[in-house]
Specification:
30% helix, metal-binding, Alpha-Beta Plaits, alpha/beta, 259 residues, five-stranded parallel β-sheet, globular, three-stranded antiparallel β-sheet, NADH_UbQ_OxRdtase-like_20kDa, Rossmann fold
Length: 259
């Protein structure tokens, strides 16, 4: 037992300093993309090679002055970077990607994407805790794994009062992953209805936001918003899958805990 205690003390504190300090990311981490249309126009004259390379049609108006990237569709694969002239599209290390609206996920300039907080009354009802029921609606388990990692010792989302619960009856809202297959549509709707009001919806990952690589498939609904049909999504967390810090950043901004 003494040896175990010594080992544990030597292990130190493994929880990231975020949000009080800089988060740690691996060297291969890809954050928010930035578009420089001037390099694209000079180098490829609107050849649209980046759009052809993109597997999810995330590049809008390729090769023009209004070229943009839709984070809700982007899988952060990097194929567009290799297909474009140097510097036309680059991925930054900025983890701030979550947004309150679908339109805010369409980016071009080098500026962070910052989710706005819920209205004051809803934040008052939720208090300083947030209980979430996660629903995997046809996901590949990538986003699900990262959400699971958000609760481990390194990221510890529980220190902010955020917990994943087993029953929608105990939840304040849903976290949805996957493109929502037709076989999961009814189950998702019933889970939503089982959550006591007021309730929120969080779409995590490209599949839950736009359908991802499965957009247009006849056996999927094209994401959470389309599947819930009229029920608004309160927070979009892009990525394929999103990093746990991106999820934490979005949640804390949604709760008004980050300015």
């Amino acid at each position: 037992m003494i040896d175990i205690l010594k080992f544990r003390l030597g292990y130190g504190n493994q929880t990231v300093a975020f949000p009080d300090g800089p988060p740690r990311f691996p060297a291969r981490f890809r954050g928010r993309p930035v578009v420089d249309p001037s390099r694209c126009e000079a180098g490829c004259a609107g050849c649209a090679g980046c759009a052809e390379a993109c597997p999810t049609e995330a590049i809008l108006d390729p090769g023009t002055a209004t070229m943009r990237v839709d984070l809700g569709r982007c899988t952060f694969c990097g194929d567009c970077v290799t297909a474009c002239p140097p510097g036309a599209i680059r991925f930054t290390g900025d983890h701030r990607l979550a947004a309150r609206t679908r339109e805010a996920l369409v980016v071009s300039r080098d500026a962070p994407v910052l989710a706005e907080a819920l209205d004051g009354e809803l934040r008052r009802v939720l208090g300083r805790s947030l209980k979430l029921r996660q629903v995997s609606a046809g996901g590949c388990s990538g986003c699900e794994a990262e959400l699971n990692a958000s609760g481990n010792i390194q990221f510890d989302v529980g220190r902010f009062g955020v917990q994943f619960v087993a029953s929608p009856r105990h939840a304040d809202g849903l976290v949805i992953t996957g493109p929502v297959t037709e076989n999961m549509r009814l189950a998702l709707r019933q889970t939503w209805e089982a959550v006591p009001a007021p309730r929120i919806v969080i779409a995590v990952g490209a599949c839950a936001i736009s359908g991802g690589p499965f957009a247009g498939s006849p056996v999927t609904c094209g994401g959470a918003a389309a599947a819930l049909d009229g029920i608004p999504v309160d927070l979009y967390v892009p990525g394929c899958p999103p990093h746990p810090i991106t999820f934490l950043d979005g949640i804390l901004r949604l709760l008004g805990r980050l300015k």
